[in-house]
Design a protein that fits this description.
With about 1150 residues, this protein is α/β, with parallel strands linked by helices. Helices cover about 35% and strands about 20% of the residues. The strands form 10 sheets. Strands 10, 11, 12, 13, 14, 17, 18 and 19 form an 8-stranded mixed beta sheet that branches. Strands 26-25-27-28-29-32-33 form a 7-stranded mixed beta sheet. α2 packs across α12, α6 (about 190-205) packs across α7 (about 225-235) and α17 (about 600-615) packs parallel to α18 (about 630-640).
C-alpha cells in the first residue's frame, strides 16, 4: 500500500487511519495445532530525502516478522508450554502493541510442529525455514525464534541459527553450559549460575544451614559446572559440602539401580540439613526428590531447587502426597527468574494481569488453548510461565521498535547488542552488549553479553504448585558483570535477636533496636554490604537460654544482638555484641561479651566528674537491681576517685517507688528506673530546682516514650541527665554522618529513637568490622575485634579493645584477666532530657573518654590504703613486698630473654622485629629530665608484650629493640599492640607530642615536606597519637642462629636481620612495615585477621634487590610521610642489625 509523497499532515492522517480497529490490527488464527493468536500490523509510510522535498526516496518497505514458536520439549509438560505461549500471545495481542511497532511491520506467529519423538530438532526447524530467504526487495521477511526449550535442544539448533542469522528470543534452559556468549541466543532471564548463587546465599544467610549437600547427574551436561562453582563458593567463605549425591544418567535411560542405591545410602549417612538439587529434570532427579520427601531421616531436610526443576515438582508432590502427609514433608525452596503472576507489588505484573485477562476473554479456552480465566491465580507455576512468556513478548516488541534495525537479519541482530536495556514498567532487562573496544568494559559497558536478567527471586513451594515469595532471598546482580566471573559470596555474620514475649518493655525496645539495625542487613546485592544478617528468635523470658541453645544446635549463630536478660548473659558459649540489659548491671568481664555503648562504670565516671566539677557536696544513690551490691561498691569507688562523699545509698526492691526517697536538693544517682517512677520524678524535679537526677542510658532508652511524654515542656527536663556516646538521633540537617545515614535508611521520623540509632550504629560498626574479615564464626569475630582493636564506622569510633594491659605494671602481669578491655565507647557526653527535645541545646558536659583508673597503685599493685595497712601491720611484709616487686621486674626481663622462647631450629624461618624511637636524640636534648622515665616505660611496655606473645628479646641498643619470633602472626600482633599500647599509655606529659609537632614544622619550613600530624585538630590528634613514636620493621626468612658464649643468649645473623633492620629504618614514627616475605608467611586465615596497605617496592640500603613493603594498619586513621628511603643515619642513631655487633649492649 505504498503512496506517493504527501505533506506531513496527510502522512499523519494516513498512519492514524491505519491504526484504527479493523484496519491496523488483524487477528489471524489460521495456523493449525498452535496455541497462538496471530497479529499483523500493516503500515507503510513514504518519506523524503530532505526537508525541502526536492528529492523523493522510496524506502517504503513492508517487513514481515515471523516468530517461530519452538516452545515444546518432551520433558516439559504441555500445560507449562501452553501457559508460556499464552503469556506471549497476551503481550503481542495487547492494545499497546500497535503503538510500539513501527510502520510497515507485520508480526506473524508460526507454530513449529515437533518431530516424531516430540523433539524440536534442527531438521524440523529447517523444514519450516527452507522457504524463507532474505530479499532485497521492499517486501522482506525477518524470522525470529521464540524458545527453544532445553539445553540440548538449544545447543543442537545453534548451527542453524548461525547459518541463517536468526536470533532465538527467550530460550528456556537450565544449566550453565549453554549460557555463554552466543549472538543467536537472546536470554531475558538471569543465568543458572546466578540462580545457584541465590540458592547458596539463601542456604547460608537465611536458613543458616551448617551441613549442606549437593545433588546432580553425570552425563547429561547439567549440574557439573554448578557443582564445581558450589565447591569454590563455599571454600571462599571457609565452608564445604557435607555430602554429594551423583550418579551417571542419560536423557533416555535411568541410572543403574545398584549405583543409585549405593549413592543414596552414602549420601544419607552425611545427615545434611539442606540439599541444593541441580539435577536435570529427568527420572533420576525425580526419584531423588521423592526419596528426600518420603524417607524418615530426610523429612526435615531443606530442598533448594533452580527454577527449571519446577517442571517436575508438581508431579513429584502428587506421587508422594500420601506419605508426606503421614510423615511430614521437606520444606522446598525454588529460585525464580521473574516475579509471580500474583505479586502485584510490581507495576509490570499489574499490566500483565490486565493483558492476560483481556486475551483470555478474547481467546477463550477451546480451539487454541485450554487455559481458563484467572488460571494464573490458582496455579502459581503456570502463572510464572505466563509471566515469562509475556516478558518475552514485551522485549520482542521493544526490540522491533525502530524500522532502521529491521533492514535485514544481520542489522537486526547487531542492533540487539548496542547496549540495549528494556524497561518493562518497573522491571529491567539488560544490558545486552556485543564486542567491546578499548576501555569500554572498564568504563561500565556490557560486553559479549546475551543475557539480560539481573534479578533472581526466591519462593517457597507448597502443595507442589503454590509459590510464596521470599523477599529476603532475592538476589540482584550488576548488569555489566554478565559472564565475566561468578560474583563472590562473602561469609555472612548470622546475628540473632531474642524477642522476649512476656515483657512489654523488652518487646518495644527490641522493635526499636531492629528498626535501625535491620536497615543495614543484607538485601541481596552481594559485596560487603550483604554480610550482616539479623534473625528473630521468639521466646518467653524464662526460656530464652533454652531457645538460644536449641537455635545454636540447629542453625548457625554468630552473635546475639539487642535486648538480653541476666540469664542469657551467663552463657559463655555465645558472643554478645553490645547487649541491651533490661536492668542496670556491671559489665561482664568476659571476652564473649563486647560493649559498644558506655558501660555503667564509664557512665558513672562521666557523671561523677561532672558532679565534682559543679561543686556538688555529696551524691545520693537509689539503686534497683539484682546486683545492687556490686553497683553500690562501684558507685563508692567512683565517688572516691573524685573525692565526693556519698550522702545516702538506698537499695530499692522492684515494688518500691521513688516517691518520698528523693532529696530536696543535690545530685542523685537513680540506677534502675521503673516506668512508675517517671511521673513522680518529673513532679519532684519541677518542685525542687536544686535537684539533679542522673539515670543510666539504657534506663532512659528503654523508657524513652514514657520519659519524653512525661517531661515534654516541663522545667525538670533540664535536670534529668544521662550519658551517651551517640549523636542526636532526631536532629534535622545533622552534621553527624551516622545520623544522616540513619535518616536515609529509616525515613519514618516516628522511628527516630535512641535505640533505633543504636541499632543502626551497631550495624555500621559490624559492617566496618566485616570488611576486613574473611571467614566469619563466633571465634573469628571476637578475635577480629581484639585484633583490629579500634573500630571506626562513619563518625563513630569504638575501642581500643584489648586482651592485654594498656599500661605496664606488676599487678597486671600477675592477673592478665583484669587487663582485658571488652568495652569500646569513646567520646561520652552528658545530656539533659531537655536536649532530647531541642538538639540546639549544648550538652551538659562535652564528650570525653574517661580513664577507668580508681587509685594510684604502689608496689605489686597495692593501693595507698592497702600499703598503709601493710606498713602498720608488720615491717617485714613490706620488705617481702619490695623483694617480690624486684623479683617480678627481674622475672619479666628474664622471661623476655628466656632462651626457651628463642627460635633455634635453623631450618625454620624466623620473624625478626626491629624497633626504634623516632627523633630520640632530639628528644633527649629537649627533655633530659623526662626521657629517662619515658624510655623506662618504653622498655617495660615492649618487654611485657614480648613475654605475652612468646617471643624473644635478642638485644637492645639504646632505645632500639631486636626481637625474634617463631610465629609471624605473633610478631605482627606484637607490633600492632605495641603501637596501641603506646597510644593509650599515660606518659604523664604532653611535652613529647609538643616536640614532635615542632620537629615537623621545622622540617616543613625547610621545604618539600608536608607535616602529617602537626596540623591535625587536637581532638583528632588525641585519638591517633600520644607520647613516644616508635617505628617498627618486620621480616621473615631463614637465619644463621648462634648461641653467644658471652651473653649466653641467641643471636641471628645474615640477610634476614639486615633486611628487617633496613625496613625499620625507612619507617616513620608510629608506623609498622612488613616485607612481602613477612606478610605472606602468614596463612590465608591469619592474613584475614590483619589489615595492611601495600606501599609497593622500596630500595633498601645494602639490600641488592627491591623489597615489596606493606604497612600494618595498627591504628586506623594514622597518616604518615613518605618512606625515609633517602635517609642516612642521624647522629646518635644506632644500627642494631647483627652485622654491627660492636655497638651492641645486652641488658
Amino acid at each position: 500500500m505504498c503512496v506517493a509523497h504527501r505533506p506531513p499532515v496527510m502522512q499523519m492522517l494516513l498512519v492514524l487511519s491505519l491504526l484504527t480497529p479493523g484496519r491496523g490490527l488483524t487477528n489471524n488464527s489460521s495456523t493449525t495445532g498452535n496455541a497462538c493468536g496471530n497479529m499483523t500490523v500493516h503500515v507503510c509510510v513514504n518519506t523524503t530525502g530532505n526537508a525541502c522535498g526536492n528529492t523523493t526516496v522510496n524506502v517504503c518497505s513492508n517487513i514481515t516478522v515471523k516468530v517461530y514458536n519452538l516452545i515444546h520439549n518432551p520433558n516439559m509438560k504441555q500445560e507449562y508450554a501452553r501457559a508460556l505461549v499464552a503469556g506471549f500471545n497476551a503481550s503481542v495481542n495487547s492494545t499497546m502493541t500497535a503503538e510500539r511497532l513501527p510502520g510497515g511491520v507485520k508480526l506473524e506467529v508460526v507454530y513449529v510442529s515437533p518431530g516424531s519423538k516430540g523433539a524440536m530438532t534442527p531438521d524440523v526447524v529447517l523444514e519450516d525455514l527452507k522457504k524463507e530467504k532474505e530479499s532485497s526487495h521492499n517486501y522482506s521477511t525477518l524470522p525470529v525464534m521464540l524458545g527453544p526449550v532445553g539445553d540440548v535442544t538449544a545447543e543442537h539448533l545453534l548451527p542453524v541459527l548461525r547459518q541463517r542469522n536468526i536470533v532465538a528470543f527467550a530460550p528456556f534452559t537450565g544449566s550453565s553450559k549453554i549460557r555463554v556468549w552466543h549472538k543467536n541466543l537472546y536470554f531475558i532471564t538471569a543465568s543458572p549460575t546466578a540462580e545457584l548463587l541465590a540458592l547458596l546465599r539463601y542456604a547460608v544467610t537465611q536458613l543458616r544451614l551448617e551441613r549442606l549437600g549437593f545433588m546432580y547427574l553425570q552425563g547429561v551436561s547439567f549440574g557439573d559446572e554448578e557443582y564445581r562453582l558450589t565447591v569454590n563458593a563455599l571454600s571462599n567463605i571457609g565452608r564445604g559440602l557435607c555430602g554429594l549425591f551423583t550418579v551417571k544418567s542419560s536423557l533416555t535411560a535411568r541410572a543403574d539401580k545398584g549405583e543409585f542405591e549405593a549413592a543414596w545410602k552414602k549420601f544419607a549417612e552425611t545427615r545434611p540439613q539442606g540439599v541444593i538439587v541441580f539435577g536435570s529434570p529427568l527420572h533420576d532427579t525425580k526419584e531423588f526428590l521423592k526419596r528426600m520427601q518420603t524417607e524418615e531421616g530426610m523429612k526435615k531436610v531443606h530442598l533448594l531447587l533452580p527454577s527449571v526443576l519446577q517442571l517436575i515438582t508438581e508431579d513429584t508432590y502428587k506421587e508422594t502426597v500420601g506419605v508426606t502427609t503421614r510423615r511430614g514433608k521437606s520444606p522446598i525452596y525454588v529460585s525464580g527468574t521473574n516475579p509471580l503472576a500474583k505479586d502485584t507489588n510490581y507495576k509490570a505484573i499489574k499490566r500483565f494481569r490486565e493483558d492476560m485477562q483481556n486475551y483470555l476473554k478474547k481467546e477463550p479456552a477451546g480451539k487454541h488453548h485450554s487455559i481458563q480465566q484467572h488460571h494464573h491465580d490458582h496455579n502459581d507455576i503456570d502463572g510464572e510461565f505466563m509471566v515469562y512468556g509475556w516478558l518475552a513478548g514485551e522485549v520482542l516488541k521493544e526490540a522491533l521498535g525502530n524500522p532502521v534495525w529491521l533492514k535485514d537479519r544481520k542489522t537486526f541482530m547487531d542492533s540487539l547488542y548496542k547496549q540495549r536495556r528494556y524497561m518493562i514498567d518497573d522491571l529491567v532487562i539488560g544490558d545486552f552488549g556485543g564486542e567491546c573496544e578499548g576501555m569500554a568494559r572498564e568504563h561500565g559497558a556490557a560486553c559479549e553479553c546475551n543475557q539480560g536478567g539481573t534479578v533472581v527471586y526466591m519462593n517457597r513451594i507448597e502443595d507442589g504448585h503454590r509459590l510464596f515469595p521470599l523477599k529476603d532471598g532475592s538476589l540482584m546482580l550488576a548488569s555489566s558483570r554478565c559472564y565475566r566471573d561468578m560474583p563472590q559470596l562473602y561469609a555472612p555474620l548470622s546475628g540473632v535477636y531474642v524477642s522476649l514475649e512476656n515483657n512489654a518493655i523488652a518487646t518495644r525496645a527490641t522493635a526499636a533496636f531492629t528498626d535501625g539495625a535491620s536497615a543495614l542487613t543484607g538485601r541481596g546485592q552481594l559485596g560487603h554490604g550483604d554480610r550482616f544478617f539479623l534473625h528473630r528468635l521468639t521466646s518467653p523470658a524464662g526460656g530464652a537460654v533454652r531457645a538460644l541453645e536449641k537455635e545454636m544446635s540447629e542453625r548457625a549463630v554468630t552473635a546475639v544482638f539487642g535486648v538480653v536478660n541476666d540469664a542469657m548473659l551467663s552463657m559463655s558459649n555465645v558472643v554478645f555484641i553490645d547487649p541491651v540489659t533490661l536492668s542496670p548491671r556491671p559489665k561482664v568481664a568476659r571476652r564473649n561479651v563486647l560493649y559498644l555503648s558506655p558501660t555503667l562504670e564509664q557512665q558513672l565516671f562521666v557523671i561523677a566528674k561532672n558532679a565534682a566539677t559543679q561543686g556538688s557536696d555529696a551524691v545520693s544513690a537509689l539503686i534497683r537491681s539484682k546486683d545492687a551490691a556490686g553497683i553500690q561498691e562501684m558507685v563508692r569507688k567512683v565517688a572516691k576517685v573524685f573525692n565526693m562523699p556519698l550522702d545516702t545509698t538506698v537499695t530499692l526492691r522492684d515494688s518500691d517507688r521513688v516517691s518520698g526517697r528523693l532529696p530536696p536538693d543535690g545530685d542523685v544517682l537513680l540506677i534502675g528506673l521503673a516506668a512508675s517512677d517517671i511521673e513522680p520524678l518529673a513532679s519532684h524535679l519541677d518542685n525542687h530546682p536544686g535537684v539533679r537526677v542522673f539515670v543510666p542510658f539504657f534506663d532512659f532508652a528503654l523508657l524513652y516514650d514514657n520519659i519524653t511524654s512525661a517531661f515534654k515542656g516541663r522545667p525538670g527536663a533540664e535536670r534529668l541527665l544521662f550519658a551517651t556516646n551517640l549523636p542526636h538521633w532526631a536532629e534535622g540537617n545533622a552534621m553527624s554522618e551516622t545520623v544522616r545515614g540513619f535518616h536515609r535508611a529509616v525515613p519514618d521520623k516516628s522511628k527516630w529513637t535512641p535505640l533505633a540509632l543504636l541499632g543502626f550504629a551497631t550495624g555500621r560498626a559490624i559492617q566496618s568490622l566485616l570488611s576486613r574479615m574473611g571467614e566469619v564464626t563466633s571465634e573469628t569475630l571476637v578475635n577480629s575485634i581484639f585484633t583490629q582493636s579500634v573500630i571506626t564506622a562513619d563518625d563513630m569510633q569504638y575501642g581500643p579493645f584489648s586482651e592485654k594491659c594498656d599500661t605496664w605494671d606488676a599487678a597486671s602481669y600477675l592477673n592478665m584477666e583484669d587487663c582485658v578491655v571488652n568495652y569500646g565507647a569513646v567520646r561520652i557526653a552528658l545530656w539533659s532530657v531537655a536536649r532530647v527535645f531541642d538538639p540546639s541545646l549544648p550538652c551538659v558536659a562535652e564528650a570525653a573518654t574517661p580513664s577507668i583508673i580508681y587509685e594510684e597503685r604502689g608496689f605489686l599493685g597495692l593501693t595507698d590504703g592497702q600499703l598503709t595497712g601493710v606498713l602498720n601491720g608488720a615491717l617485714f611484709i613490706l620488705v617481702l613486698a619490695i623483694a617480690g616487686s624486684a623479683l617480678m621486674l627481674s622475672k619479666i626481663f628474664q622471661d623476655a630473654r628466656d632462651n626457651r622462647r628463642a627460635p633455634k631450629e635453623p631450618t625454620d624461618p624466623v620473624t625478626l622485629i626491629f624497633t626504634d624511637i623516632e627523633s630520640s636524640t632530639a628528644l633527649w636534648a629537649a627533655h633530659p629530665t623526662l626521657m629517662p622515665d619515658a624510655v623506662e616505660a618504653h622498655h617495660q611496655l615492649i618487654r611485657s608484650l614480648i613475654v605475652r606473645y612468646g617471643c624473644y628479646e635478642v638485644k637492645t641498643v639504646g632505645d632500639s629493640f631486636m626481637i625474634a619470633c617463631r610465629s609471624p602472626l605473633a610478631a605482627v600482633q606484637l607490633a600492632g599492640d605495641l603501637q596501641r599500647c603506646f597510644l593509650h599509655h599515660d606518659w604523664g606529659t604532653t611535652a613529647l607530642d609538643d616536640s614532635y609537632h615542632e620537629f615537623e614544622l621545622q622540617k616543613a619550613e625547610a621545604g618539600g615536606y608536608e607535616p602529617p600530624t602537626a596540623h591535625l585538630d587536637p581532638c583528632v590528634y588525641r585519638e591517633l597519637w600520644n607520647g613516644l613514636r616508635v617505628r617498627i620493621g618486620i621480616h621473615t626468612e631463614l637465619c644463621d642462629i648462634r648461641l653467644d658464649e658471652v651473653t649466653k643468649g641467641y643471636d641471628y645473623y645474615g640477610c634476614t636481620s639486615n633486611i628487617a633492620a633496613r625496613t625499620e629504618h625507612v619507617a616513620n614514627g608510629g608506623q609498622v612495615l612488613l616485607t612481602r616475605a613477612a606478610y605472606y608467611s602468614l596463612s590465608t586465615a591469619e592474613r584475614e585477621q590483619v589489615s595492611v596497605t601495600s606501599l609497593g617496592e622500596a630500595t633498601l640500603r645494602d639490600v641488592p634487590d627491591p623489597v615489596e613493603i606493606y604497612q600494618l594498619e595498627a591504628v586506623p586513621g594514622r597518616e604518615f610521610a613518605a618512606l625515609r628511603l633517602e635517609h642516612e643515619l642521624d647522629e646518635g642513631e644506632q644500627d642494631i642489625s647483627s652485622s654491627a655487633t660492636d655497638s651492641i649492649r645486652n641488658e
